Amino acid sequence: MNLFLPQVMVDKTYMDNIAAKVERRVKRLSDEMPSRNMTEVALFVAMDYCDQYMKSVGDGSNLRVQIKDYLQESSYARKELEEVQKENENLKAEIEKLKSMLSSQSSGVASEKKVLPAPEENNQPVTKTPVIETRPKKNLNPETEVSSAVQGLFSDEAFAESADATAEIMSFFEQKAFDDEE
Asked: Which among 48, 66, 86 is the end of a domain?
């Protein structure tokens, strides 16, 4: 009965390759240390292989822990992405709702839009969205069409919905800025 090898079938070629590798290592070490006897050299080789084995087991354990951590981080990131996507869809729906309200309230008001250039600081162009100036056309009857549209734009309900949407958008960007700082 062999005490050193497990009681499983091992491929003969595999075992021959291991034996050849150990033999080469023992020969090389005995050539480097001629004053040592064969038992000491074989013990040094066995200790070196055992050290390599123990380090590889530790490395394997570390890799398993790292993989577990990466999977957990990935799961958190995936959940955060889903939340942001839901919030993005909600904001898009809110924008469409506001656009619809705005277009229905101002459908009687024909206006001409003029895009004003964005301001510049220190001769560097500012990357803000240009301001759009809206002026009523000259051919409108100011007493009827403009006043009804203006009243609709500044109703308490429209103002409250606009303020709620603005607060949600600001909260989202403040949270993102806070998350980025961490």
From this structure: 86
CA–CA separation, 137 and 111 (whole Å) = 5
CA dihedral 51, 56, 57, 61 (to 10 degrees): 140
User: What b/e readout covers 130-159, taking b as 16+ CB neighbours within 10 angstroms?
Assistant: eeeeeeeeeeeeeeebbeebeebeeeeeee
Query: Which residues constitute the domain of residue 22?
Result: 9-86
At residue 119 the predicted structure's pLDDT band, cuts being 50, 70 and 90, is low
Number of domains in the chain: 2
Same domain, yes or no, for 150 and 82?
A: no
Residue 81 token pair:
């992405």
Residue 168, pLDDT score = 74
